[in-house]
Design goal:
A: about 950 residues; alpha+beta; Dbl Homology Domain, Chain A; PH-domain like; B: about 190 residues; about 25% strand; globular; lipoprotein (chain B); nucleotide-binding (chain B)
Chain lengths: ~950, ~190
């Protein structure tokens, strides 16, 4: 075919189309004026029939849309044809825009069938019958006279749809002619597609019309009452048990009636109507092998329905129809055409097992009247969703098999406000880590078991509350139980000890803000029986107590001046004391020293004190450490500002530093993914140490999180205004306990690193491990609070030491060395370069500088080993200086070393030397006894001791001038 | 062979040669494992004794009168104390007596006391007769020996004598502990008569 011929052909198509469209438009305009507008004029508001009129209005709207569209397209095409510009399928709008046309027609027929279903034609026909009797012509001109019906409604029905279907046939005809005419056009995808589209549209229209008629007939047959309940414009009958028998009661067919609609499955029995939303129906798959089975299982959120059929083929048919209806209902879109073969000839899929939808529970039980919106699977909430109960409780989160499982937020309405739980759930119960913000303005952060607080947890008042309480400890069945610490802010009291049923019960220590503290057995919240009481002025009472801290019964009182009273006491402490007994006035300083430095909590079971902290961690390790489970086991760790605080080596002095820089550097965390695998790879102790440093200091690493919790429980007992010197030993043991626990955990994963040293020489190393390995890494976290306790413990001797230093520092270098009996040939005067008018006697702070700097470094680290190393270097530096002076090697005996050490220490002016030395000694292992470390520490301690001596403190340097 | 660590502390006036004796003792034998020391103030030396090895941890003390009160910190937990005097200085022998008294009152129970009269090579200017010293030592059931650190006389013997007085280990202790540290003697031999 030549190009000219082609062109002619397209122009002809254009002309054909314009012609049919023009005729169609004429018809539409005519119908509009004479029929549709007239019908709309009858739109008198009549409450009962409003549904029909609404549908009529919508119908008219769709009618207009279709009309407008066709008009516009027709005009465009006419212009194109006039210009001879129709050249290919792209210029023919019914090919190019087939989908829009399809859409307009589909919408029109939806409205149209809706109007049919609600009985609109019957209604409007009756309403307007008088008018039409008078103006028969107006109706008849649209219908072929021979076929004309007697009923007005039927005529209207025909007028409003037949011509539209005819128009589609015209389109199909034009397109078919095109394909038949010429082979070259065959294979044009657009043309083929639109032809198929119009065919589908044709069958779709006839299907929806049939469906609508069936539905309309159904409503008519059911009677007014049921129709009122069940009839909605959009609802269409899909299958009826009258057609294909099916029943809920086997063998009694016809007793009940089952209607499958496009949105619901309806079960009618007598006057009882049951209605099942299709979106929450699951049809149990049919096992095709047992094809003779006649029953069908349908799962709803609250029921399982077994349907029985007469014949197996009925079952298969119902199964198929149910599935299709459910699928379309979920997709919120009807198939096109209806009951077709599905997209591209594939078998339509069954509805998904997992879906998102809303359902209101009706049956009695915990979910009555609750609304669930979310993911479902096989009839149960499963996945993410929200459940709202009638009583304003609601849960948003994970579900599995119909129960809360995973993480979820749960709100319970209270008299005032809400209790808000953010928890992990297992099978409908709060389990593992979670938090709850109570309406009473308190927050619980910790573990749950079976819906109750259980295990380790912290309960505290919200910030800004007047009466602050804080409990850090163990719980059982929602009550405080086991080891725990309670602090009350207004009274400043802190209780450390055992709990039972929300009461202080068992071994416990009470520390009050006034400095009073007591230890003993508690019962029902009170200290009863034997106990120990210490006042701030270091008076000590050991003996019987009754309620309200009455010292009543046998006991012994030791006063700070060493005077003791032993006997029977009555009356309250601090309120005038009455005693019958023996008073010992022999000023026994040892007794008062013992009282001042008495350590409480000695018989506490420090080991196993915090099972609630470690058990979840161990469980987490056993659960393969998936990242998903980490939070459930280890908690959210909304880190407090305290735990982020930079650990200053100067104890409290360093606390005020900004924590920004610190938290940043710590956030460059190692990710926890497969951290156990990584741990197992550690080959040597050095590697392990590095690994531990990295992971323990990371806020996101599981080990780091564990350490944070450890720090938190430690601070609860020993930090803040309740810090008490009588708790030093307990605190120190607890730090070691935490280190040991971490070590125990690690040891299981890298046993090879711990068992190597079986040779006798290294045997001490095995025991030392937790000291050398874990302790230095975790110590910085505990150090500020721990060193505070050391300082409190040493407050008195430190004051003496400071006085001593003060006086010694009044002396010049030479005078001081002379005073300390340093042998003259050891004076490092050669090192000094004096100007002409200076004299040695005026020199100050010049000798042994390197050693002084060395010893000063002990306050810059929290690691006891590093501190110790600094002490060793100090001695080395002294010896090096001496060797330089003597120009030969000289090993210093203590006769020479001790005075020099005192000289160096007094010049170094370390703030808390006693605490530092005590700290080093406590944190080193006991094996050091008698060894070099022991000796070195003893040497420094003896210097510290010496400087507290009265003669130095008073500056009585009389015997030399 | 089991190693036992024995803490030994040195007492005595300044200048009597406490550290000289120890330095001599430690240096005389060439030791493969040079143990770390703190100047001449802390030294160690291991010697065989029977089927045991005795590792002496030797703690020096400052001899000056003004530091006397610090001594308990040093001799606490010692298995043995070596009190040194200078045979040419009577004063140093008087100090020795003070130390013996103090140890008896405040020292560890069952501490082994050894008295060493040093500078044996200067016997021509001797002020403390050997007999007097020996009798004193016997009266308190102490080890007595005169030494010369300069000429290496009796230094070895001094420590051997101490070694011999260390009671052997209980058999079950040996089994349970391969290596063993000992700072304080279990109460065994009743040596103090008065």
């Amino acid at each position: 075919m030549s190009l000219v011929q082609m062109k002619d052909k397209w122009i002809k198509v254009g002309q054909d189309l314009v012609k049919t469209d023009k005729a169609f438009l004429e018809y539409l305009s005519d119908v509009n004026v004479t029929v549709l507008q007239h019908l709309l004029n009858h739109n008198a508001v009549e409450g009962k029939r409003q549904m029909q009129m609404t549908q009529l209005l919508q119908l008219s709207e769709k009618f207009q849309a279709l009309w407008d569209y066709t008009e516009v397209k027709c005009k465009q095409l006419q212009t194109l044809t006039g210009q001879g510009n129709v050249q290919s399928s792209r210029d023919v709008y019914i090919i190019e825009q087939m989908e829009s046309i399809q859409q307009l027609y589909t919408e029109y027929f939806s409205s149209f069938t809706n109007f049919v279903v609600v009985g609109g034609f019957d209604y409007i026909g009756k309403k307007t019958s008088t008018y039409w009797k008078e103006n028969k012509v107006n109706l008849w001109r649209f219908i072929n006279a021979q076929k004309c019906e007697s009923s007005v409604s039927l005529n209207l029905y025909r007028i409003l749809h037949e011509r539209l279907r005819e128009q589609i046939s015209h389109y199909t005809r034009i397109l078919t002619l095109l394909t038949e005419d010429d082979r070259q056009i065959v294979g044009d995808e657009g043309l083929d597609g639109s032809l198929r589209g119009f065919m589908d549209l044709k069958s779709y229209i006839s299907q929806v019309l049939d469906e609508a008629t069936l539905t309309k007939d159904l409503w008519k047959s059911l009677g007014q009452k049921l129709t009122d309940i069940l009839c909605t414009p959009e609802r269409r009958l899909q299958e009826d048990s009258k057609n294909a028998p099916i029943s809920l009661s086997a063998g009694r067919f016809g007793h009940d009636r089952i209607l499958l609609c496009n949105d619901a499955l309806i079960h009618l029995q007598g006057s009882d109507v049951r209605y099942y939303d299709l979106s929450t129906l699951w049809i149990e798959p049919i096992d095709m092998d047992i094809s003779e089975s006649k029953s069908l299982k349908v799962i709803t959120p609250e029921d399982q329905l077994i349907f029985h059929t007469l014949e197996p083929h009925n079952r298969v048919m119902w199964y198929w129809k149910l599935n299709q209806a459910v699928r379309q209902c979920l997709a919120k879109k009807r198939d096109f055409p209806l009951w077709g073969k599905g997209n591209k000839g594939q078998r339509p899929a069954n509805p998904p097992n997992c879906r998102f939808t809303t359902y209101t529970f009706k049956n009695e039980g915990r979910l009555k009247n609750a609304i669930y919106e979310g993911d479902w699977k096989q009839g149960k909430p499963h996945g993410k969703g929200t459940l709202k109960w009638e009583d304003e409780r609601n849960y948003t989160g994970d579900f599995i098999n119909g129960l809360e499982h995973g993480f979820g937020v749960y709100l319970v309405s209270q008299a005032e406000g809400y209790n808000c739980y953010k928890c992990h759930w297992i099978e409908g119960k709060k389990q593992r880590y979670g938090m709850c913000e109570y309406s009473t303005n308190t927050i619980y952060r910790g573990y749950f078991k079976g819906d109750l607080r259980h295990g380790f947890g912290i309960l505290e008042s919200n910030r800004g509350e007047s009466s602050l309480i804080r409990y850090v400890g163990h719980w059982e069945n929602d009550r405080k139980h086991g080891y725990g610490i309670m602090e009350t802010a207004d009274s400043g009291d802190r209780y450390i000890g055992m709990w039972k049923d929300d009461q202080r019960d068992g071994r416990g220590i009470m520390v009050t803000q006034s400095g009073l503290c007591y230890e003993g057995n508690f019962q029902g919240g009170k200290l009863i029986g034997k106990g120990v009481l210490l006042s701030e002025d270091n008076s000590l009472y050991e003996g019987e107590f009754t309620e309200d801290l009455q010292l009543r019964g046998k006991g012994k009182m030791t006063f700070p001046d060493g005077i003791t009273i032993e006997g029977t006491f009555s009356s309250t402490f601090g309120n005038g004391l009455q005693a019958n007994g023996v008073m010992n006035t022999s000023n026994n300083t040892e007794m008062s020293y013992a009282a001042t430095h008495l350590q409480l909590g000695q018989d506490f079971l420090v080991l196993g004190q915090w099972p609630g902290v470690f058990t979840p961690f161990i469980e987490y390790l056993r659960s393969d450490c998936t990242e998903k489970m980490e939070e459930a086991f280890l908690g959210f760790h909304t880190e407090s500002s305290r735990s982020l605080r930079k650990v200053g080596s100067e104890g409290l002095g360093g606390d005020s530093q900004s924590d920004e820089h610190h938290s940043c550097s710590r956030r460059e965390a190692v990710t926890n993914a497969e951290f156990l695998k990584e741990l197992r790879l550690q080959q040597s102790k050095d590697q392990l140490q590095q690994y531990l440093e990295k992971s323990l200091q990371s806020l996101r690493h599981p080990l780091g999180k564990l350490l944070q919790t450890q720090t938190l429980v430690f601070q609860a007992a020993y930090s803040g205004p309740g810090a008490n010197k009588h708790l030093l030993e307990m605190a120190q043991k607890e730090v070691k306990y935490h280190a040991e626990k971490i070590q125990e955990i690690i040891m299981d994963y890298v046993p090879q690193l711990f068992n190597k040293s079986s040779e006798p020489v290294e045997s001490s190393e095995t025991e030392m491990d937790f000291c050398s390995l874990v302790l230095p890494v975790i110590l910085p976290e505990f150090y500020p609070d721990l060193s505070m306790l050391y300082m409190l413990y040493h407050a008195e001797d430190n004051a003496c030491y400071r006085q001593g230093i003060l006086h010694l520092n009044l002396l010049s270098d030479t005078k001081l060395m002379e005073f300390l009996d340093v042998q003259r040939h050891l004076w490092p005067l050669k090192d000094l370069h004096l100007t002409s008018n200076q004299r040695y006697s005026l020199v100050h702070d010049q000798c042994f500088l390197s050693a002084i700097e060395c010893v000063q470094k002990i306050s810059t680290t929290a690691d006891p080993q590093e501190k110790l190393d600094n002490l060793f270097h100090t001695v080395d530096e002294i010896e090096r200086t001496v060797n330089r002076i003597l120009c030969r090697e000289y090993k210093l005996p203590l006769d020479d070393l001790l005075p020099l050490l005192i000289y160096v220490i007094s010049r170094a002016r370390i703030q808390h030397l006693g605490s530092e030395l005590h700290f080093i000694r406590d944190m080193m292992t006991p094996q050091m006894q008698g060894g070099m470390v022991d000796f070195l520490l003893t040497a420094f301690e003896s210097c510290y001791e010496h400087m507290q001596k009265e003669e130095i403190r008073q500056g009585r340097f009389t015997n030399f001038t | 062979m089991a190693i036992r660590e024995l803490k030994v502390c040195l007492l005595g006036d300044t200048g009597v040669g406490k550290s000289s004796i120890v330095c001599r003792f430690v240096q005389d034998h060439f030791d493969h494992n040079i143990s770390p020391t703190i100047g001449a103030s802390f030294l160690t030396k291991t010697v065989p004794c029977g089927n045991e090895l005795h590792k002496f941890l030797i703690w020096d003390t400052a001899g000056q009168e003004r530091f006397h009160s610090l001594a308990p910190m040093y001799y606490r937990g010692s298995a043995a104390a070596v009190i040194v005097y200078d045979i040419t200085k009577l004063d140093s022998f008087q100090t020795l007596k003070k130390w013996v008294k103090e140890l008896k009152e405040h020292g560890p129970e069952d501490i082994i006391v050894a008295i060493a009269g040093n500078k044996n090579d200067l016997s021509d200017i001797r002020e403390v007769p050997m007999k007097e010293a020996k009798e004193f030592a016997e009266s308190i059931a102490a080890i007595f020996i005169e030494t010369s650190a300069r000429n290496a006389v009796n230094v070895e013997e001094l420590f051997q004598k101490i070694s011999r007085q260390i009671p052997p280990l209980d058999p079950q202790d040996v089994e349970s502990n391969e290596s063993f540290k000992l700072t304080r003697q279990p109460a065994t031999v009743h040596r103090r008569c008065c």
